[in-house]
Amino acid sequence: MLNTSPDFKENVRHAMADAGLQKALDRAKKPFALSRANAVAGLPEFEALRETAKGIKNHTIAHLDYYLEAFTSQVESKGGQVHWCRTAEDARNAVLGICQRVGARTATKGKSMISEEIGLNDFLAEQGIEPIETDLGEYILQLRNEAPSHIIGPAFHLNREDWEESFRAAHTHLPADRVFAEKRDIQAEARAVLREKFLAADVGITGANFLIAETGTSIIVTNEGNGDLTQTLPRVHIVLASLEKVVPTIEDTLSLLRVLARSATGQEFSVYTTFSTGPKRPGDLDGPEEYHVVLLDNGRSNMVGSEFQDMLRCIRCSACMNHCPVYLTVGGHAYGSMYSGPMGSVLTPAIFGADQAHLLPSASTFCGKCESVCPVKIPLTGMMRHWRERAFERNLSPATGRYGIGIWGFFARRPALYRAVTRIASWSLGLAGRKRGSFRSLPLAGAWTKDRDMPAPEGETFFARYAREQRSR
């Protein structure tokens, strides 16, 4: 996926003017949040589980080297192979090397955000290997040549008519009178086309929700079963995962799974939770002949020990974006990254650099809703504030904002002067706006008044009100 994070402001303008996107976002605002709330209400120990999940992830990150080595040892003892990759290029080349060695011409893919992060699809296609997305949402996006806009609902931004239009354009065998009135019609059409792809694939590529150090097992969680077909039918199974996906034991994994589905979709458990441990053994009826795990760093090891270490706890449930007023207004594509919403505003600068993604941490009201619903209690607003500080220190933030803060700081260090100036400014603005009650434009406030009126101040300043209340007490 092309990183367009530097164009965030322009992306937002396009998103706000896109009637189809706004329709899709309006439709999707309530279901995710309501489903999560109902699922949490049905599990009295959910808050205790959140604390347990946080502890498991903190412990693992503190001993990340140990658990990664243990995982690797277990994978190799069962006939699999682990490929350690520092960069996105290393990971792409590792996958390509496996595909070329076995003469692969096609590769089916289960949902994998890491493949989006490293731009795998375009890379494989350039090398003559056809990647085939098998997740329903990812499949329609591949037909449309679009990137995912959401972690678990990649086609979050589309409406039913968009699906029908894309199917008719790509599936030329469809009769003119074929209707797609319901979701099952869309599913049936995709299933008919993809079943042949599953059977013909040379390599299957999946992501991983968790990697279990105790057993060398990878886990993928889906609601469609496409992950199972992707990793059992082809001769070769490749798992794409980042370093922080490792978890010590099966018991720890089960604790994390209990908060994952409830936070993501409001389910107690996803429909399919599949454990894969190595290639098939003598006597197994199915399974891959080869099992590979491509472990990606891509900046994550630099986060260990930094103020952004807590971000490595993320289990990609998308609860933060499902409750974020900014994400639910502009959609995922506006962020210009495969990771959007609050978690993307923290993770994208770590991957692509603050110079590329310094605008994203400002895409937050700091309402704190993301933190309140995070199943592993990541302090997202605090980390976004750290990125804002770095952007300010490196002069990446807009000059007007930096100068404005400098002027504010000058007065804030002189309380008496600050109170006097704010009192005069409030009185003057109140007087000027008394007739209409608001301002359609103001100097230095064009970004605000371009889309909305600025209310005229009424009454006394906060400091004056506070002093008066204190005296009355």
Automatic annotation (TrEMBL):
<dbReference type="InterPro" id="IPR004452">
    <property type="entry name" value="LutB/LldF"/>
</dbReference>
<dbReference type="InterPro" id="IPR037171">
    <property type="entry name" value="NagB/RpiA_transferase-like"/>
</dbReference>
<keyword id="KW-0408">Iron</keyword>
<feature type="domain" description="4Fe-4S ferredoxin-type">
    <location>
        <begin position="305"/>
        <end position="333"/>
    </location>
</feature>
<dbReference type="InterPro" id="IPR024185">
    <property type="entry name" value="FTHF_cligase-like_sf"/>
</dbReference>
<dbReference type="Pfam" id="PF11870">
    <property type="entry name" value="LutB_C"/>
</dbReference>
<dbReference type="InterPro" id="IPR017900">
    <property type="entry name" value="4Fe4S_Fe_S_CS"/>
</dbReference>
<dbReference type="Pfam" id="PF02589">
    <property type="entry name" value="LUD_dom"/>
</dbReference>
<dbReference type="GO" id="GO:0051539">
    <property type="term" value="F:4 iron, 4 sulfur cluster binding"/>
</dbReference>
<dbReference type="InterPro" id="IPR017896">
    <property type="entry name" value="4Fe4S_Fe-S-bd"/>
</dbReference>
<dbReference type="Pfam" id="PF13183">
    <property type="entry name" value="Fer4_8"/>
</dbReference>
<keyword id="KW-0479">Metal-binding</keyword>
<dbReference type="GO" id="GO:0046872">
    <property type="term" value="F:metal ion binding"/>
</dbReference>
<dbReference type="InterPro" id="IPR003741">
    <property type="entry name" value="LUD_dom"/>
</dbReference>
<protein>
    <submittedName>
        <fullName>L-lactate dehydrogenase complex protein LldF</fullName>
    </submittedName>
</protein>
<dbReference type="GO" id="GO:0006089">
    <property type="term" value="P:lactate metabolic process"/>
</dbReference>
<dbReference type="InterPro" id="IPR024569">
    <property type="entry name" value="LutB_C"/>
</dbReference>
<keyword id="KW-0004">4Fe-4S</keyword>
<keyword id="KW-0411">Iron-sulfur</keyword>
